[in-house]
Design goal:
The protein is an alpha+beta fold and 135 residues long. Helix content is 16%, strand content 31%. The strands form 2 sheets. The chain has a 5-stranded antiparallel beta sheet with strand order 2-1-4-5-3. The N and C termini lie far apart (44 Å). The structure holds zinc ion (ZN).
Length: 135
C-alpha cells in the first residue's frame, strides 16, 4: 500500500485535498471521488494524485457524470446554534416555532437564528437536514 496525496481540482482551484492509502494511484483517486475515474483528458474537474515517495504525479477525472449529490450547505457550516430565546417549550409550542420558507419551501426553526438568517437571503439553497440536538 502506498500513501498518496489526492487533490480534487476545478480548473486550477484545489477544492479539497487529503491523504489516501491505496494500492495504486487510480484507486486513490476513486476513493476520493467515490466513483470510477479515468486518466484525465481535458476535463475541468479532475483529481491530482501525488506519490511523494516516487515523486510521481497522476491526473484523473471522473469516468462518468458526477454522481455525488450536489454540495449542500450544512447547518453546521453556519456555526453553532444561535438560539433566539430560551424557554421551556411543550410539543404544541414546538410546532409553532416552524414556518415554511417562501423561497425554498423548507421548514425553518424560528428558534435558531442561523436558519432564519439563511432563509432570509434572497437567493439560497435548502439547508442539508441535520438532527439538531437541543440541550
Ligand atoms: Zn429557504
Amino acid at each position: 500500500m502506498t500513501k498518496y496525496q489526492v487533490e480534487e481540482i476545478y480548473g486550477t482551484t484545489v477544492v479539497s485535498s487529503g491523504t489516501v492509502v491505496e494500492s495504486d494511484p487510480m484507486k486513490a483517486a476513486e476513493a476520493t471521488a467515490g466513483q470510477r475515474v479515468l486518466p484525465r483528458a481535458l476535463q475541468d474537474h479532475w483529481f491530482r494524485v501525488v506519490d511523494e515517495d516516487q515523486a510521481a504525479v497522476y491526473e484523473y477525472s471522473l469516468a462518468g457524470p458526477d454522481e455525488r449529490p450536489e454540495e449542500w450547505t450544512k447547518l453546521s457550516d453556519l456555526g453553532s446554534p444561535i438560539l433566539g430565546h430560551t424557554r421551556e417549550s411543550d410539543a404544541a409550542d414546538e410546532q409553532e416555532s416552524f414556518y415554511n420558507c417562501p423561497i425554498c419551501g423548507q421548514p425553518v426553526d424560528m428558534h435558531d437564528l442561523r436558519q432564519v438568517m439563511w432563509h432570509e437571503q434572497p437567493r439560497h439553497e435548502r439547508l442539508k437536514p441535520e438532527i439538531v440536538k437541543r440541550s
